[in-house]
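Researcher: We're teaching a course module on how sequence relates to structure. For the next exercise, students receive a sequence and then see the predicted structure as tokens, so they can try to spot secondary structure elements on their own. Here is the exercise chain.
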Amino acid sequence: MESKVSQNGDILIEDMIEKLKKDYQDEIAVAQENKIQLQQMGERLAKASHESKALEIEYKLGKINDRWQHLLDLIAAR
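Model: And here is the predicted structure for the students to work with:
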């Protein structure tokens, strides 16, 4: 990153920060869509499975949601 700043003196650090912020927000949006699709597929799979397997799937979906929320909380804290 430092080399970019020294090579492109006209690029302000604030501009670079804004670009990085936009890039990670775009990546989070894509990951959010993937998570939603995974959640929907998991719910369909749980409905089609036997009770013991359905409980396991629901547990794992809950863990995914917990981890996703933790990630969003970390992002909000920054």
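Model: If you want an answer key for the exercise: Residues 3 and 9 are 10 Å apart (CA to CA). The mean pLDDT is 89.
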